[in-house]
Specification:
Structural class: alpha+beta
Strand order of the largest sheet: 3-31-32-33-34
Strand content: 25-35%
Radius of gyration: 29 Å
Number of helices: 8
Low-confidence stretches: 10-17
């Protein structure tokens, strides 16, 4: 038998060539599921912090499943699997180290992980049929390109929905532009006469706006009737100024506007001419509060009483100033007087002036965290232990035949005697860590409402008899869950924000009537003489709505201020005043009598 030569060896294909292209449907399903959850939560009106936790949970779970799928994927070389994962970890770590100091690192992780996973999946779908080295290089390049851009931005806090407010890193901040303008004004003022600040006194006039949310702290405007057809007769701009960082609102008293703002290293109480916007005086204290999520500057709104301005800064400095001249009368530090720590988002409650006392809440566990000072001298009058943390303001209410101070905190609603600070009653509703921001809402002389972003709105009846004080829960509604957006009561209906969506709720039963209108985390006023609601949206747009319990009825809108807008608007003498952390503006509202 003939023997042939040995068989020629068959070449073995390159290992890369025998590996099948990776399946693309698992990562596509994962990223599609994440973004569906992300947008569904954003559209649902779920409160900011609850929504953030839900989105973060979804991101972590899907990222974990994605990583397991990637490491177990035998259609990708083992070395490439670990190389790509290692690259992702290294690039993300370097990015976090190079972030601008204003950027909150968890927010970058929250955004960066799903964005990089999405871009990675799209890249994999495009290159899955190419050679292994092209797959490897493309995936690494995508990871680098999706993380590095975060190093090019700075952050100006969060939006009301909890998303980072990014700006280019090299761009001037609103505060820097404001300070530059202030420096120029100071230079120009050397050759110009300043407005007259020598008035002997400032007195409250009919139609003024002397406190946070108006005279009653209830967001109601009386004596003003406006035309709602703004297409034919729109509001007219009277003046517009840059403003220093702050979430304070404004007072309008005797032709003057008062507010607070940050001016570099100092907190300032500012007095402007209400008709022109020209500065009359400013009082500054060296204090600066800066927090990455909420931003820079004071939070509380000043209060006017008896010719004086009472203001509370974010670090706890309580000022009493002459309203005419700005000269200091007295100064206290409520953090030092109470032993309380500065809250996470700063002291935010506006001072309550009643019965010759100035009342403020410091929060924390101190046995003297509710403080009253004599308005004339600033000397302590009384202190009381008030449970919980709060960003709400003390509210004077007349319930069950007695004036009392209502204080809303994450421990519930507590009432104190306005004159001496003794505890009258409390309704415990412990929601530790839930930021309580909005004001209690008085329905009548027996019923009161209070709300939270997670716990909803609770209706109480308060009674007093020979046995003492009693609270009766009428209902709890989850159809109205405001975060820092106060609501108004009109003709048996509540109008306000359920999360980020405007709504109407029956005040007698707590049942939702309608829910429509996406104005971000805006604020609302009631023009009570004509059943009209004025909403200042988070984007600075003014929207008129009918106070209609049957349906959402939008009447008109216009852009008032630009930028993120959380501060409460004010209306006085037919004019609307709106501000945010960047600018302040005055508009003449078209009146009915003018037509």
């Amino acid at each position: 038998m003939e023997t042939g030569s040995p068989a020629t060896p068959v070449p073995v294909a390159n290992a890369d060539a025998v590996i099948k292209p990776p399946r693309i449907w698992p990562p596509l399903v994962l990223v599609a599921l994440y973004w569906a959850i992300f947008f569904a939560i954003g559209a649902s009106g779920i409160p900011m912090f609850m929504g953030f936790l839900m989105q973060m949970g979804a991101m972590l779970l899907i990222a974990l499943i994605f990583m397991v799928w990637w490491l177990a994927n035998r259609r990708i070389r083992l070395t490439d699997r670990f190389l790509v994962l290692g690259t992702a970890i290294v690039v993300a770590t370097i990015t976090l180290l190079l972030l601008h100091p204003s950027v909150v690192k968890p927010s970058v992780v929250f955004l960066g992980v799903p964005i990089s996973l999405t871009a990675f999946t799209i890249c994999l779908a495009v290159v899955r049929n190419t050679a292994a080295q092209w797959q490897r290089l493309s995936m690494i390049a995508v990871l680098v390109l999706t993380w590095i851009p975060f190093t090019l931005v700075r952050m100006e806090g969060l939006t009301g929905g909890g998303n980072p407010d990014f700006r280019w890193r090299w761009s001037a901040s609103a505060e820097q532009r404001f300070l530059a303008e202030q420096a120029q004004k100071a230079h120009d003022a050397q050759s110009q006469s300043a407005p007259d600040a020598s008035s002997d006194s400032v007195t409250l006039q009919a139609g003024d706006w002397p406190a946070f949310r108006g005279a009653g702290r209830d967001g109601k405007v009386y004596g003003t009737a406006i035309t709602t057809d703004w297409s034919a007769n729109p509001p007219k701009l009277v003046w517009r100024n840059r403003a220093g960082p702050s979430w304070s609102s404004m007072l309008i008293v005797d032709g003057r506007l008062y507010t607070q703002e940050q001016r570099g290293p100092s907190e300032a109480v500012v007095c402007l001419e209400a008709n022109t916007g020209r500065e009359i005086w400013s009082h500054e204290d060296v204090a600066r509060f800066e927090e990455q999520l909420g931003g820079i500057g004071p939070r509380a709104t000043p209060t006017f009483a008896d010719g004086r301005i009472y203001s509370l800064g974010a670090t706890g400095m309580l000022n009493c100033l002459n309203a005419a001249s700005g000269e200091p009368v007295w100064l206290r530090n409520i953090a030092e007087d109470s032993g309380a720590k500065i809250p996470m988002w700063g002291f935010s409650g506006s001072p309550l002036v009643t019965g010759g006392l100035v009342i403020v809440f410091a929060g924390g566990t101190s046995p003297k965290n509710l403080l009253a000072y004599h308005a004339e001298s600033g000397e302590p009058a009384w202190t009381a232990p008030a449970p919980g943390e709060s960003y709400s303001s003390p509210q004077l209410s007349f319930l069950a035949g007695k004036d009392q101070i209502l204080l809303l905190s994450d421990a519930g609603l507590t009432a104190f005697d306005a004159a001496v600070g003794t505890l009258l009653w409390k309704y415990a509703l412990a929601t530790p860590g839930e930021p309580r921001v909005v004001q209690p809402c008085l329905v009548d002389d027996a019923d009161v409402l209070f709300s939270g972003a997670n716990s909803g709105t609770t209706s109480l009846t308060v009674r007093h008899d020979a046995e003492g004080w009693h609270t009766i829960e009428n209902w709890v509604s989850h159809d109205l869950k405001p975060f820092f957006n106060d609501y108004v009561l009109y003709d048996g209906s509540l109008y306000g924000f359920d999360g980020k969506i405007f709504c109407c709720v029956d005040a007698q039963a707590g049942e939702g009537r309608w829910k429509q209108g996406r104005y971000g985390n805006g604020q609302v006023l009631l023009l009570a003489d004509q059943r009209v609601l004025l909403v200042l949206s988070e984007s600075g747009e003014v929207v008129l709505l009918a106070a209609n319990p049957k349906q959402h009825e939008e009447l008109a809108r216009f852009q008032a201020v630009n930028g993120k807008t959380w501060s409460y608007p004010a209306i006085a003498h037919g004019r609307l005043y709106a501000r945010n952390a960047e600018e302040i503006a005055c508009f003449e509202l078209p009146s009915v009598s003018a037509n």
